[in-house]
Amino acid sequence: MIKYQFVSSIDGNTYYSVFAHACDWTWIELFSDDIGTQDPADFEPTDVERFYFSEWNDPKNLVVNTTTAVPISMSRAVTDFDSIKEFYGTIMGGTTLREVAFDDGSEWLTMNLPGALTHIEFVRRPVPEGSTFTVQEFIDIHNTAHEKYILTPVCGFDQWADDHWAYDLPDGMLIDDKVALFK
């Protein structure tokens, strides 16, 4: 488990984050501005803003008015921001909220789809020297499996297709409008 604290450059508030291995290869990050009885000294200060609450699309104030945990962000390692912007921006109508480069060479691209409460964060990091398995190799494994096993709409659904995101299109956005744009 990793504990972070960071100060928002927008509102000046201190936020806390607990980053933990949930199961399999899934990690979860929990955010709050209140840590209860936890000692703030146990949270590693970081200059990296783990989330930009001021840019969160919460038109109904769901988090303020509920005790339900609400997903606010999904994060994915990528190698190519241009294709991400093309798909999520041009095709899906999303907006780029923030694109940030850090001193270590890492880059974050944060996007939001129309009407979505959940940010999509794409992270591109330099390949560490001596790496034996890279993000690009992982992407290639996924794409090779899809090409080999997804032959028709009723023939093939490989194990990597289970690792996907699903979206409920907002009113006024039709599936017909999107299908024509998919490759």
Protein architecture, described:
The chain has 183 residues and is of the alpha/beta class. It is globular. The mean pLDDT is 81. A four-stranded mixed beta sheet has the order 3-2-1-4, with no helix packed on it. It is built from three helices and eight strands; from the N terminus they run E-E-E-E-E-H-E-E-E-H-H. The protein has a domain at 1-55.
Per-chain topology:
Elements: E1 2-7, E2 14-23, E3 26-32, E4 44-45, E5 73-77, H1 81-91, E6 95-101, E7 107-112, E8 119-124, H2 135-149, H3 175-179
Parallel strand pairs: 1-4, 5-8
Antiparallel strand pairs: 1-2, 2-3, 6-7, 7-8
Could you list the spans in which at least 5 consecutive residues all have pLDDT below 50? none
Major pleated sheet: 4 strands, mixed
Mean pLDDT: 81
Helix content: 10-25%
Give the beta-strand count: 8
What is the general shape? globular
Radius of gyration: 19 Å
**Beta-strand percentage range:** 25-35%
Secondary structure class reads alpha/beta
As laid out across the biggest beta sheet, the strand order is 3-2-1-4
Please count the helical segments.
3
Q: How would you spell out the order of helices and strands?
A: EEEEEHEEEHH
Distance between the termini: 39 Å
What is this structure, in a nutshell?
The chain is 17% helix and 27% strand. It is of the alpha/beta class and 183 residues long.
What structural keywords apply?
183 residues; 4-stranded mixed beta sheet; globular; 27% strand; alpha/beta; single chain; 3 helices
